């Protein structure tokens, strides 16, 4: 059964990323229910969609009882709108991308690289094929497209930098070459592997062919059970797979996403620390052999680019923090942080955002573009995670917690990060005792940035550094014994 | 480095199981002989060299401490202290000890960013060091002390480790080697000496973040309980007073009435009296009953234990409401 051709009979899609996946996939006598992946907008899940002849109706936050109702109403009348949907949209009957209705909150962003998410059955080769997938571009085409792309996320060996130079090194190298799909990173990567694994695998397989790779290893956290299961199914369903695709897991630790620590984990080291370089993994990677490490985002962008003949200039951004439910949204590079933030409901008045993952930069300005150049210009991170802080949050406390996290979670190898994060956390704690030394903090974060071995230490000082620049008054208030947000009161009263 | 263990006739089963806890670094030396310019002076170095080899060959404009650099016996580069940062025309600020000496590269030691990094990182090393040279067995022959004098450090910006609650107990349990982790700079020389040179597989790096420490692969707490054969290699390579051969741990101590290296900490692991010869009880037991090294099972068990500890059940990307400050 291919979804796209099943228009004469109504087809019912269930999109649910929740841990329990409560909705049954078979109700009463109906067998037309299919499970699709998450749309990225968790707040409306479980989401049920009923499609027939180019019309789809939407039932957000759907219960099992409601699903029973929908099934019987639709079976009786053949009408997709029979069970009072929250929204309905008309679309190309053959569409392979989620058609976006108005009114249930799915509007923000675009659905291009994430087109499959919430629409196609994640592990159905037929659905992927109908969407134009499983193309086998020739190596030169892969390099041409790679030239126009940048690596996405800190787990990518080519984070924010050109891909093809690194690919050339692997192509020119000797030995057993591996493409590592690094899915230890943020929600966007989990979304792609869980909802659109073929997009990621297509990119990895084509890249392997282009550089003469021998194998693909999908690497994720032991805790991402759903991802592991989905990838396993997708690999065994992948038509005519021409090289081995293995799955490897590492501990559920932030640092385990760092590309060289990913290699250590895949090699089975019981303790993860970063490797030094140069040379980097492109010449001495997995077991000392030439290796590429890319995130699912990078690879999905590559594979979608094959179909269009050019890359899609979009960024995947997850918005979380003080929100009702996190959302992962694909934003055109011409868009701003505001576009992404529109995808969620804040639980208070907006105060600030930490932009760029665990060690993002702090800002109160959402009119900043989401393209890497604009973000870097604004001292923000490009990791694709925006953590929102509502007005009752204290920025000093937030960066203190992030800094302490860095002190506890770094691998322990290099001094600027191992000792630097500890000293930085101490300097932030000293503010509560009245000692606020912004220049000392700036000096320390600068050295952490210029001399740490890996991106963990390079970025670990960013929350403190940017918060001191953007929220100076809050730090001064704390040094005077006041917490403007009122959340550090107990500490200050002592 | 640590990944390459050559099989020797008497030790193949051991090498298989050696788990030093460190990364399998690539070799970072240059592919070919190279000529680089250091502070305006041309220096030629052999294949396999890093920038530190060129720097050591000339008088540099500024002092480059390079605390963790050893450069002998195939030990290192660990490249962890980052007190060897220098500026290069092509790559910006890089660690001299592990950066390949590339032909034509121009190196400056006095560029402000590099200089600042060496300075701050040296102070960061001291911030976690129990700086009590007067009661230390390495006083006068300590690489850290030498570096601090040369660097003209008077008042380290982050202070020194002087909070007694934070001190790790001194391990005085072995009759041959004393460990004072409060003086360890985590240069990893001892671990490499033990695993890669002696192929004994006793020492390892364990933990992460500020809990990173030198420990034992057999998952025990003290030197006496470990599989140590008392070869002393680790103490020979240790740059500080962290690993010192017994008998000389007080050798260079300035005789302050009532002060010794041991009571400088206030707590220690003592010898249990079970140790008689150069081999620890654990090692003797292995040698007699289990020539295959029983550390094998221990290693697996300890790896599991480490993994469980590491696996915090919380969402790693959101530390949310943890107490602060
Ligand atoms: S920067 Fe931090 S995480 Fe990276 S090697 Fe250094 S200590 Fe480890
Ligand atoms: S190891 Fe001993 S001699 Fe060296 S700096 Fe530390 S206390 Fe001083
Ligand atoms: S004990 Fe000595 S040799 Fe070993 S890591 Fe510490 S300072 Fe280096
Ligand atoms: S000597 Fe280069 S990092 Fe320590």
Question: Would you mind describing this structure in some detail?
Answer:
The complex is a heterodimer of chains A (494) and B (325). Chain A has 494 residues and is an alpha/beta fold. Chain A folds into four domains: 11-107, no CATH class; 139-308, NADH-ubiquinone oxidoreductase 51kDa subunit (Rossmann fold, 3-Layer(aba) Sandwich); 314-390, Ubiquitin-like (UB roll); 395-493, de novo design (two linked rop proteins). Helices cover 37% and strands 15% of the residues of chain A. Chain A is built from 18 helices and 14 strands. In chain A, the strands form three sheets. A five-stranded mixed sheet of chain A has the order 2-1-3-4-5, with helices on one face. In chain A, helix 3 crosses helix 6 and helix 13 runs antiparallel to helix 14 (438-451). The mean pLDDT of chain A is 94. The two termini of chain B are 41 Å apart. The radius of gyration of chain B is 21 Å and the shape is globular. With 325 residues, chain B is an alpha+beta fold. A five-stranded mixed sheet of chain B has the order 2-1-5-3-4. In chain B, strand 3 (85-88) and strand 4 (92-95) form a beta hairpin. Chain B has two domains: 34-124, Ubiquitin-like (UB roll), CATH 3.10.20.740; 130-286, Alpha-Beta Plaits. The longest helix of chain B has 16 residues, at 112-127. Chain B is built from eight helices and eleven strands. Mean pLDDT of chain B is 82; it is low at 1-15 and 288-320. Classes of the chains: A alpha/beta (494), B alpha+beta (325). Bound molecules: iron/sulfur cluster (3 copies) and FE2/S2 (inorganic) cluster. Chain B: Residues 32-113 form the 2Fe-2S ferredoxin-type domain. Chain B: Keywords: 4Fe-4S, Iron, Iron-sulfur, Metal-binding, Repeat. Chain B: This is 2Fe-2S iron-sulfur cluster-binding protein.
């Amino acid at each position: 059964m291919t979804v796209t051709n099943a228009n004469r009979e109504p087809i019912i899609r269930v999109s649910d990323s929740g841990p329990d996946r409560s909705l049954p996939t078979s109700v009463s006598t109906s067998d037309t229910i299919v499970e699709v992946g998450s749309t990225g907008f968790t707040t409306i899940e479980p989401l049920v969609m009923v499609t027939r002849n180019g019309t789809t109706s939407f039932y957000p936050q759907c219960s099992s009882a409601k699903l029973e109702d929908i099934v019987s109403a639709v079976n009786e009348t053949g009408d997709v709108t029979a069970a009072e949907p929250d929204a309905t949209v008309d679309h190309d009957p053959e569409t392979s991308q989620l058609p976006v209705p108005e009114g249930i909150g799915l509007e923000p962003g675009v659905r291009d690289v994430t087109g499959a998410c919430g629409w196609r059955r994640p592990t159905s080769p037929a659905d992927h094929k109908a969407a134009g997938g499983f193309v086998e571009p020739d190596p030169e085409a892969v390099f041409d497209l790679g030239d126009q792309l940048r690596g996405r996320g800190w787990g990518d060996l080519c984070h924010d930098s050109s891909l093809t130079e690194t690919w050339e090194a692997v192509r020119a190298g000797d030995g057993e070459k591996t493409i590592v799909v690094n899915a230890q990173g943020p929600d966007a990567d989990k979304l792609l592997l869980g909802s659109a694994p073929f997009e990621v695998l297509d990119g990895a397989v084509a890249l392997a062919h282009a550089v003469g790779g021998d194998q693909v290893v999908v690497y994720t956290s032991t805790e991402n059970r759903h991802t592991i299961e989905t990838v396993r199914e997708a690999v065994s369903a992948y038509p005519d797979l021409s090289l081995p695709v293995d799955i490897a897991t590492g501990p559920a630790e932030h640092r385990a996403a760092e590309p060289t620590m990913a290699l250590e984990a895949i090699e089975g080291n019981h303790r993860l620390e970063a490797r030094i370089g140069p040379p980097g993994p492109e010449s001495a990677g997995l077991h000392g052999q030439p290796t590429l490490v890319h995130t699912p985002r990078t690879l999905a962008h590559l594979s979608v680019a094959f179909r269009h003949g050019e890359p899609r200039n979009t960024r995947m951004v997850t918005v979380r923090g003080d929100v009702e439910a996190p959302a992962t949204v694909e934003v055109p590079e011409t868009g701003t942080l505001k576009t992404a933030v529109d995808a969620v409901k804040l639980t208070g008045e907006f105060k600030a955002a930490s932009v760029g993952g665990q060690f993002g930069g702090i800002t109160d300005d959402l009119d900043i573009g989401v393209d890497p150049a604009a973000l870097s210009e604004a001292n923000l991170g490009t990791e694709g995670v925006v953590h929102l802080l509502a007005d009752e949050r204290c920025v000093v406390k937030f960066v203190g917690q992030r800094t302490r996290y860095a002190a506890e979670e770094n691998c322990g190898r290099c001094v600027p990060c191992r000792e630097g994060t500890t000293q930085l956390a101490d300097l932030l704690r000293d503010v509560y005792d009245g000692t606020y030394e912004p220049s000392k903090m700036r000096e320390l974060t600068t050295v952490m940035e210029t001399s740490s071995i890996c991106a963990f230490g390079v970025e670990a000082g960013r929350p403190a550094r940017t918060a001191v620049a953007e929220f100076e008054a809050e730090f001064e208030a704390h040094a005077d014994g006041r917490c403007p947000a009122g959340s550090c009161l107990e500490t200050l009263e002592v | 480095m640590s990944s390459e263990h050559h099989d020797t006739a008497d030790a193949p089963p051991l090498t298989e199981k050696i788990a030093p806890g460190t990364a399998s670094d690539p070799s970072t030396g240059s592919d070919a002989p190279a000529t680089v310019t250091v502070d305006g002076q041309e220096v030629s170095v052999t294949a396999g060299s890093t920038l530190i080899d060129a720097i050591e060959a000339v008088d540099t404009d500024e002092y480059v401490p390079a605390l963790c650099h050893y450069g002998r016996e195939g030990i290192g580069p660990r490249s962890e202290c980052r007190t060897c940062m220098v500026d290069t025309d092509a790559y910006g600020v890089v660690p001299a000890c592990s950066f390949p000496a590339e032909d034509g590269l121009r190196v400056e030691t006095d560029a402000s960013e590099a200089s600042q990094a060496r300075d701050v990182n040296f102070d960061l090393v001291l911030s976690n060091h129990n700086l009590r040279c007067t009661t230390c067995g390495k006083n006068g022959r300590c690489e850290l002390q030498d570096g601090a004098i040369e660097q003209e450090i008077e008042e380290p910006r982050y202070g020194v480790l002087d909070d007694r609650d934070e001190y790790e107990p001194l391990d005085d349990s072995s009759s041959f080697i004393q460990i004072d982790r409060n003086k360890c700079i985590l240069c990893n020389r001892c671990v490499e000496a033990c695993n890669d040179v002696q192929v004994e597989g006793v020492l390892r790096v364990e933990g992460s973040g500020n809990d990173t420490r030198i420990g034992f692969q057999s998952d025990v707490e003290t030197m006496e309980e470990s599989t140590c054969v008392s070869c002393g290699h680790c103490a020979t390579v240790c740059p500080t007073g962290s690993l010192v051969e017994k008998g000389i741990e007080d050798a260079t101590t300035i005789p302050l009435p009532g002060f010794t290296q041991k009571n400088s900490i206030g707590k220690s692991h003592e010898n249990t009296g079970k140790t008689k010869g150069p081999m620890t009880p654990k090692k003797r037991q292995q040698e007699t009953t289990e020539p295959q090294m029983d550390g094998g099972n221990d290693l697996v068990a300890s790896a599991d234990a480490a993994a469980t500890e590491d696996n915090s059940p919380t969402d790693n990307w959101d530390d949310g409401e943890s107490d602060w400050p």
